[in-house]
Amino acid sequence: MCRLLGVVSKAPSRLTDTLSDMLEQFTELSGEHADGWGIAAWHDGGLTVVKEAVPAWSSQRYGEATETVTDAAITHIRLATPGLATEPNNTHPFSTGTLAFAHNGFFNPPDAIDELIDPDLLADAGGGTDSERYFLRVLSLLRTGDPVSAIAAAAADIRSRAEFASLNCLLLTKEALYAYTEEDPSSEVSQRRGPEFFRIRYLIEPGRVVVASTGFADSTPASSDRSIRWDVLPHRHVLEIRRSNLRVSVHRFPE
Questions:
Q1: N or C end of the chain: which has fewer CB within 10 A?
Q2: Residue 92: domain span
């Protein structure tokens, strides 16, 4: 299992500034989620991805990467599924060209959707994780569809073919940041961790929109009178945050 943090801001700024109230607490979670970290960010017109198979809290490169000047980024810290190697090729975000993808959860068996992945994409798989297969299925669907539909369809494919704990993910493109959430509440992980563990929240403010998994910052729901007000992304919904204007849309898909 892993933790996710994504942000789109009105203007490029260092991540340490854009996420100054959250990044330290998020990084502290790498004491448990200690099997790697990765940051994908738009910088100087291109998508840069930096990642290592070491704990974020102990990595000098992680500290350097959080100083990246960007208006859109995703950050991932990994707690590896038992049996899956802790190595760079299995570390999120996975990326190609102008796309980056990070997953929080697992499905089994990892090859459950291999026959649905375009052969050329599957042949280029760098690691052995279910998460990379999830990304490759999204890439296959993107060849004929849009990101919102591709994420939802990939999740439906996994749901129909595999056991899973969570299909939570972030997808960063040139145009937008997308988030999807779905869990199986009967899975061993959900039963052990509780109903909050796989929740995805988002925060809309004048200069930024943040989307994140739980475990850090203020988890206060939108109905509270507290100053930080997170909204909860319902299961089987796709959140879309446009880079051009911070417009937020929530797309629902049928049960």
A1: C
A2: 2-252
